Amino acid sequence: MTAPARLSPVPTGNLAQRLQQRRKILWYLSMVFIALVMILPVYYMVYLAFSELGKEFVFPPGIIPDPIKIENVLRAPEGTATPLWGYAKNSILYAGLGTLGALVAESMAGFALARMRFPGRNVLFALTVGMLIMPFVATIIPKFLLFSRIGLVDTYWALILPWWFGGSPYGIFLMRQFFLTIPREFDEAALIDGAGPWRTLWLVLMPQAVPVLVALGMLHFAYFWNDLLGPLVFCQTRVCKTLPQGILANYQATWDPQWAMFMMSTVLMVAPVAVVFILAQRRFKQGFLFSGLGGR
Amino acid sequence: MVAYGFLAPWIIGLAVFYLGPIGASAVLSFTDYNIISPAEFTGFDNYEKMITDGEFVQALKVTLYYTAFFLLMYVVLSLFVAMLANRPGRGTGLFRLVVFLPSLIPLFAAAVLWGWIFNTDFGLINYLLDEIGLPRQGFFQSPEQALPLVGMLTFWSIGSAFLVYLSGLQSIPIHLYEAITVDGASAVRRFWHVTLPMLSPVILFNLIIGIVLSFQVFDIAWVLTDGGPANRTLFWVLLIYRRAFQDFEMGYASALSWVLFIVVAGVTGLIFRTSRWWVHYEGRTR
Fold this sequence. Notes:
The complex is a heterodimer. By secondary structure, chain A is mainly alpha-helical. Chain A has helices at 3-7, 13-49, 72-75, 85-115, 121-131, 140-149, 156-164, 169-181, 185-192, 197-205, 210-226, 229-234, 243-253, 259-283, 285-293.
């Protein structure tokens, strides 16, 4: 792609057009190639999900499963050993309440760090940024010991509670950066109208933050939804095990792993998140772009 | 004073779920503690044990090897994929979606899927190798191939780095490219003199996040390889998990996780230190 360009840095006329053409073709080919590489495992997953039990791995595989078993959609949630509904409920609680609590806490902390002056602000901000690099696993043992002492292990609270206390350092940092982009005139106008900081945050600033909140919320939700290590450590009983644990348990429960059911379970688990993600990204493009820039 | 009210949850969280535990695991790392009987102070025993523990040395090697692979995918290759997606043209919207899609699949499910595709006896890849007359491979069952394969598969999880790069690329002012193109610069020069410096803060961000992520690799080993074959995929976090929650050696596991924290903090700290030499902040003098 670059070699011909170097021969003649400023190509003119016909040659320039031909080079342009060749680059464009090369560019398209690379895109198609990478797209195929990326989509193939996803396609194979969906393929297996709609395959007939026991016939998932008939070689050579066709382009589409034969026969296509639509009823897998209904069968998979019933589970091959235990139904998935209970696990799904736990996952929804973990991801839903975790996301909600994190967003509230992150907005509050981000607001204070962006708008208020108080002793210790710089230290607190530096600590927050420093915690960005804290590996989750580095704190997991003391957290486990603490939670088991106060009886929170094997309840949802062990998973959710930490996120209600400040959320993630990344979220706080992101919300602070976002609030810094909103002109202070908004706060001042609210102050003149008699609003305190609490009402300023919720009624004036938060409505403007919706795109960023959606993007950050999606990020949190997807993390909680797919999390395996957290539930593995904190939830060992049926009352709080989550979908990843449930799907894996079903998969390991029988001598024959029932691939089609496993794949359908994961497809059903991913699909809602993927759909919401795609729709949200269209609708709140700016928020997603900003979240990407959160690291700058 | 109101500020502390807004920050109260985070200040409590910081103390109880971050600084407290890190301090506590430092203390625990000097003890022998199995939850049932009270902790016993043993000085540097756990750290001495680490040096002689073959499994720890193996986990360290394996994790560093994986990190190198992961960073190559997450920081380097994802940049090129993002540059492809950044050119205006038909189909780029779909392309972005397709690149991001695999990142939404939970790692445990991806692990099972890859395990099947690369299954030694019944897998798709070995079937295809048979068809074209090439020898079958051991893949996840082969001590030589398992770790490089796990490393290569991280290509499918570049989604978030890709999105970050994409937004970074879109914020590079067009006039910089126009200026350098008028001067007759080739695509390579444009990349080195405009794209890379303008993107360097974003590269720094992806590098740091990538390091924190890759040191915590766990799911694929837990689900698929169980650290094998011959401990070739015994990742650091898997070792911590086993020692802490299967053997209940809380003291030793704390030492392991404390060293993990120190290593991650050290490496990212070093990168921050060097970043003033290679990260270019627009509108700021060095």
